[in-house]
């Protein structure tokens, strides 16, 4: 007797047949052979459904803002108590390029490198780490794009990662080889880091990539396997929050570099509008930085996230921090936490082709409701020196928990 399960996973479909307790993994359309604990599977799991009835979600965790508050709360609690990851030990010839920030006081990287730093710092100081690789659900590839770029230069990052994978991970440890790397992950936010997998064999095809440029048409990004990392730029001098909804007097705000056709298009239509405040526009002549930048976020009802050289920017994180409703103008962006959060309840998503209707769309939106939801979800987009429940770090760990193996495949031939 056989039981068949079919999983649409990223750009491939895999069929797993269990026959006489022997697991045969058939790769139907490319990619790595995977059988992970996805949320859709969790929603159908009878045990999880039963346990969810005994776990009460926090008062702010409501539907429809969350797809399934009870299931998420129950699964999150299980993750916090059971999830374990194994970090590869440092080797003499690679230590200088690994994350080793546990207990560090600084200096800390900022800008595009801040997100990966906070993730690894929180990870090293967490209870998720195990020293027993056989206990681990996932394995961490701890190379630091920030350190590699500073020490070796941008052109040497990808070749070094290739060396690290081929000469250290594959040759000195058995764990990558036994699953083809499908229970491994690495994290980086800078565009440079997301490109390292292109020249590192099957790193991008098999491992879970925790990256910010999560474009569904990026050839190295596989939705559902890989993870969308919300880019956060730390502004420790700027306190979170802003004006209450009824006192916000700017309809929409954006400031940044004109480095994409979409941004140029938005400016060409709306630069003279007095309700939509654009940095570099004729109303707001300069590109806004510093205190004025933060004050405009605190005073605007809506803040634009416009695709630039990549689909992601730090504008979503900034908007949520200051209570401004994000407006996503970035086609093909795999939004962070979209299996958990209903983005229609906390943001306005506008097709790039509908930019000419932007003002009409924003005025028709229910701003008070969206504002309330953004305020409730700020914790999910907040990085803390010491991680807290449901903050950015633990939300990322939950996303990884969803990608753990329920059955660990083997590439060995019997």
From TrEMBL:
Keyword vocabulary terms for this entry: Golgi apparatus, Signal-anchor, Transmembrane
Topology versus the membrane: Single-pass type II membrane protein
InterPro entries: Exostosin, Exostosin_GT47
Main location as per UniProt: Golgi
Domain Exostosin GT47: 80-364
Domain of life the protein comes from: Eukaryota
Compartments it resides in: Golgi apparatus membrane
Family in the record: Belongs to the glycosyltransferase 47 family.
Protein name: Exostosin GT47 domain-containing protein
Origin species: Riccia fluitans
